[in-house]
Write a structure and sequence with these properties.
238 residues, two-stranded antiparallel ribbon, alpha+beta
Length: 238
């Protein structure tokens, strides 16, 4: 059963598990038989429509409408950048600046043209473990980042972090293979550590500010504590 984070007459948000597709695709039609749209529809007995995207490997807040009339109203909020989204990611290394911006353009996967892409970041915690995961240093450093994308390019956060060489742990497409193998062997990690933490927007009908928060998944919290971040610090993430 999906965890429902928010629900009213027209909107509903869930905490999407990592590895769950939002909807059926041609590529995944045979390999996966459950999809977030279908599962939520069966759970609440109402047809739902997603109004934004989350990658299959990303967990966290996913918003749906319960009727088609609301779709353009909510999508407009995303299009004009009035929706505030924050993500949490565990990455290799620690950025030099505690707060900063990734603003390198990204190539469109369809048109191949460069598109504006802006991602704000903040270092929340850093940790160092006594393992050489690269073959060059006696220890390895990691950071838990809070990320706020201001544009909505495909795999934007993952690609920006890869450009900066702060690869997301568990990212099979844009990450670092050595890091992924280390976390698989040392911590039995099979998932990507990128989580859609909060979603904030003005309700299209009620005109009130809505803030939806999804707690970190158990596997993500466990890894943070395994590398030395205290449980109370993880629990206090707002």
């Amino acid at each position: 059963m999906l965890e429902i984070l928010y629900e009213d007459a027209g909107l509903i948000a869930i905490n999407k598990p990592a590895g769950l597709l939002v909807h059926r695709t041609r590529i995944a039609a045979e390999e996966q038989h459950e999809f977030a749209i279908q599962m939520l529809r069966d759970q609440i007995g109402v047809h739902v429509h997603p109004v934004h995207r989350l990658d299959r490997a990303t967990s966290g807040v996913l918003l749906f409408t319960k009727n088609r009339e609301l779709i353009p109203l909510v999508e407009k909020e995303f299009a004009v950048r009035r929706v505030k989204k924050t993500y949490l990611a565990l990455v290799r290394g620690v950025p030099r600046e505690a707060v900063g911006t990734f603003d390198r353009p990204l190539e469109s996967e369809r048109s191949k043209r460069l598109q504006e892409a802006i991602t704000r970041f903040k270092v929340l915690f850093s940790a160092e473990i006594p393992f050489d995961t690269t073959g060059r240093y006696p220890s390895s450093r990691y950071a838990l980042l809070e990320l706020s994308p201001e544009t909505g390019r495909t795999h934007q956060i993952r690609r920006h972090l890869a450009q900066a060489r702060h690869y997301i742990i568990g990212d099979k497409k844009h990450g670092d293979n050595k890091q992924n193998k280390f976390f698989e062997s040392q911590f039995k990690l099979q998932k990507m550590l990128l989580h859609a933490h909060t979603l904030e927007f003005t309700h299209p009908i009620e005109n009130e500010l809505i803030r939806i928060k999804a707690e970190l998944p158990v596997h993500f919290r466990a890894i943070l504590m395994d590398i030395g971040i205290k449980e109370e610090e993880v629990s206090n993430l707002s």
